[in-house]
Amino acid sequence: MGKTGIRIFIGLWALAMLLGVAYLFRTPLMLQLVSLEGEPPLLDRADVVLGDRELWADAFYTVEEIGPDTFVIAEPLYHQDVHSYLLVGSERALLIDTGSPAGKIAPVVASLTDKPVSVISSHLHYDHVGNHDAFDTILMPDLPHLRARVPDGVFTPTSDEHLGFVEGYDVPSWQVAGWWEPDTDMDLGNRQVTLLSIPGHTPDSVAIWDKQAKQFFMGDYSGDGAIYAFMPNSSLRTYLDTTRRLVADLPETINIYAAHGDAKSGVPVTGLQSLRDLETALAAFEDGTAQGTGVWPRAFTVNDTTSILTDLPGPLSASRDLP
Length: 323
Known about the structure:
Layout: H1 3-24, H2 26-35, E1 55-56, E2 62-67, E3 70-74, E4 83-88, E5 93-96, H3 106-112, E6 117-120, E7 137-141, H4 144-147, E8 154-155, H5 159-162, E9 174-175, E10 178-180, E11 185-187, E12 192-197, E13 206-210, E14 215-217, E15 225-229, H6 236-249, E16 255-257, E17 269-270, H7 272-286, E18 298-303, E19 306-310
Parallel strand pairs: 5-6, 6-7, 7-10, 14-16, 15-19
Antiparallel strand pairs: 1-2, 2-3, 3-4, 4-5, 8-9, 11-12, 12-13, 13-14, 16-17, 18-19
Helix pairs in contact: 6-7
């Protein structure tokens, strides 16, 4: 082999190595590329279509009452249109998620209740913990992998748990006021709500279930639009196991509220059938019949309004722990 051939061989070898590294670390690399764009601009208010009962609370947030003393606080100008939920009892209130760092949610909450407010986040992504610093009583799910990291009472998410770097947000810390054990109730005063651990989207994902009101609040786990299962700590196997449990345990008549929904305006609410559809779609990965489109993330149809987005299969896959 001459010098030219050696140079070609070395060049091809280096290219193969580069492509191999890019494949192995595709998820963090793609997220870093997304971060170069920074936070997208807010939408113009004139371009926002509100739901029938959705009202502007200020220049950024909207509010809609979805049941007695139950409010959704939405961010329709923000590109992710985050929905946080406020559940008010006779003695205290529970805020599920504090939304993105793009707004200030505390004044809106104060306009809706004068009860003491506790906060629980559906998971630790930046668009759900963006205003934790505005509240004194932050609860966390009593999960071993979280509690072990809070020896001094202060919790700090990891970069992969928070993901704020994709829009230029720093990782926050907050004082943990209490630990809420999954499968136990909290009494808000004439209103009992139950915490459920629902890993899949993230290991720390939780849902709040108001059994009497037949309301189930599940963050980013499911809902109309895209289900993100390609994140660094997502798991399709766990998603399937959790979804099977929810389909078996939840009643036939229930309103399931999500934190995002890009299939329609207004509150992103579905029913038990949406989880049945998700179970069917995830089971297709297990039996090897799932058919997706796109390169990264891969998109797989769940139903007419929903798709699940996954990583590519292979070594160090962010989510493809099913075939």
